Amino acid sequence: MDGQTMTIHIFKSEYQRLHRLSKYWYSVMSKDSPYHGRASVIYSELHDLRRRVYRVRVNEDTANPRIVENLGEVVVTDDTA
Fold this sequence. Notes:
Layout: E1 5-16, E2 21-28, E3 39-44, E4 53-58, E5 66-73
Parallel strand pairs: 3-5
Antiparallel strand pairs: 1-2, 1-4, 2-3, 4-5
């Protein structure tokens, strides 16, 4: 994940009670990201993300991907989609 900042679309979320983490299914929307268009699962201690598009910062550990900071919700227009 390289600690990058990217725009993602979260399409499913689930709270993992045992680990106290939220599990998010997402796709990468940032065209400048090497992961553009890919869908995957990521975890976070942030529990307020829903089925929307967000600008986030992720950790550097690809084996244990985490959202570490929510930089805000993104309003999707024809130019950003």
